[in-house]
Amino acid sequence: MKITTFNPMIVTKDAESVIKLFEELGFERRHKKTGINDKDISSVRMRYTGEDGKIFHVDIAEAPVPQDITTMRMNIDNFDEAYKLLEEKGFKNSQGDKVTVTPSSKSTMMFSPTGFPINITEHLKDHD
Q1: Closest of 82, 84, 71, 85 to residue 105, by C-alpha
Q2: Which of 37, 79, 91, 97 has the fewest CB atoms found within 10 Å of its own CB?
């Protein structure tokens, strides 16, 4: 398994206010994905480029959560391998046995035995 990107992700029921804050910090919206899990769940990728050329990302997802969740988004090249490795370490899928599959990705949030989450995502190369 190869990690292709790794950055923070904020899951909130009020994404616009969080996005606005990050825009005021100098981040720019890169792209938005909507209709995740056939629901009103969306995710916005944001990017900041420093004066020194360093690039930082944060993802902000809007979902019906009781309180904000800060997680790590880890893009990987092999979802099944990452899922198995985390399961072997005691992580649990936040969706039970369900995995979110869209035309462009396969993902789920996994919680460690002590409670910290990692959102694993594999980008699917063969999509329209």
Answers
A1: 82
A2: 97
